[in-house]
Amino acid sequence: MDDAREELTPADEDLEIKSGEGGNQNSSNYHFDSSYEPFFDSVVNGDWENAKECLATLLIPNVLRARNPAARGSTALHIAAREGHVHIVKELVLLMTQEDLEIRDDNGCTALHIAVQKENVDAVKEVVPLIRQQGLGIKNKTNGETALHVAAGSGNVHIAKELAELMREEDLEIGNSNNCHALHIALLKGHVHIGKELIALMRKEALEINDGQGYTALGRAIRLCHHRGDEYSEEAVIEMIKPMVAKNQKILGIVASPNDYIPVVEACMLLKFQLGRYLYSVTPREALMPPKNRWQGASLFVFCLGAKEFGINIQAPAIFDIHDLSIPVSISEDDGGTQRDVDVSGINRIYEMKLIHVRMFEFIRCMGEATRNRDDLTLVQLDLMKKSIFEACFKNSMLHAAGNLSPFSQSNHIQGASLQMQRELQWFKEVESIVPLAAHETRNTSDDLTARELFHKNHEKLMVEAEISMKGTATSCTVVGALIVTIMFAAAFTIPGGNNGTSGIPMFINENLFLVFIASDTIFLIFSTTSVIIFLGILTSRYAEEDFLQNLPTKMMIGLLTLFIAIATMMIAFSCGLVIMLHGKYSWVPIPGILVASIPVTSFVWMLFPLLVQTFISTYGPGIFNRKVKQWY
Q1: pLDDT tens digit string along 510-522?
Q2: Pick from 264, 262, 255, 184: which is nearest to 224 by CA?
Q3: Is the domain defined by 1-132 classed in CATH 2.60.40.10?
């Protein structure tokens, strides 16, 4: 400050002398006198020259500390900062003490608060170096926020960095009226760039602080990814939380309200599985293990299976207490966090969601391996435990649950209603194959229907859509096949070069290309006719439920494959015909002709070939229980 004062102009030196005259005044004297009004008006208008003239006739400390009641108790520095007059701010701070810079208006805001609210970087840079460190931690009265809170909420990284680097570490942890420190606010507002700066400066213990809603900064980052995923990808959030984890691993085991989940379970509950995979890789295993955290591991297990995110590498016996066939798994019914317990290790819940997987059997197997070596459990007891689990599943209508229609989110990646119907049938058949025969005829209590009857009832609309989809594809392909059959049939008897007028033998019968033409024309007629017949068979099918499992998809595959072969041989025959007729002087003509003619044919194949591949994989690929999954860690 002394160096700054040495640069004062002669006029300013007069002001400094005037200030010294009142040096014994109490700094808490903020009385506003009517004689100060011209000075305040000049500050409002940004006229420093006139303001200096006013100051020459006034007692400087008092006028600079005076709080104008007409301006919500603002000092001249407040007003200059609010109006954006940086040149006046610069002059005023040279005449004020550190305590003067901390004077608050009626809202409890210092001039620094005002400058930050206005996002005036230059004004902030003038005030911050001269204010005391403890002054940077002053809260306003409105919501108990420091200037750093305001900067974190506004998203101005330059101002936030300027403040944070000069503040005391303990002041970075100050909570507002909602107990949110600056990092909480930055993440609530989605200002990831500010969050990165604050993480580097804060003490590691500060990352363990919960805000008013029970979330640590890590919990807020997960919620940011959930609520504003269109702006902040999981990859971006992962990069931001990596420094948090590196600084303090204890945050990985802190539960967040209202669900009382640790971060990895919270991420999976919100279906952020890329984020969940990262958190799982760094979360200590004891945070998921019994006895203290037994339900955390079980909840994670259920949420992953609930979204078909398999491959989680937790040993079932390590998570679950095998003496307890009722494992408390907290299921959040909505974002508000309403919870309820699910019995039998969440398996019933999994069945209700139509998410049965081979992992359930692995659970039984692992449980068996873990208990066979224990003295207090006999093989008979183990068998009884397994039986109890299955009986509980059957009692809760596992097969009936499989008869429900899958949610759109689980089938929207499947091309066409016919393949969606096939997937529903495959799922039902898989579940049907593992339940006792008696369960097939069991009727539910709500509709008095067997599982098969319930399946039919719930899939009536999809059945209609699947039939329309299958017939639409078959009709289009039939038209295409019939059209090219007609054309190529005529072409087969109108051979290139014509026939010998005397013998009737084709003129180019000794040419190799002519033999290729005849062979490809023959193959074309065979396969195109076959495809038309197959597609006509699809159009006249009965369209029963079982037909969508293999019968109709197989016919569709054969029809598409034969049509593709027919089109390919047609192009070969066409190319050979052009070359034979235009050889010699016009031998260059067939090349562009063939390329241009290939465009519509290629487009047709390009549109329908993915359907052929997906149909084949869906029909003859690995079953639902046998698919390979990526291990989490």
Answers
A1: 667 777 888 888 8
A2: 184
A3: no
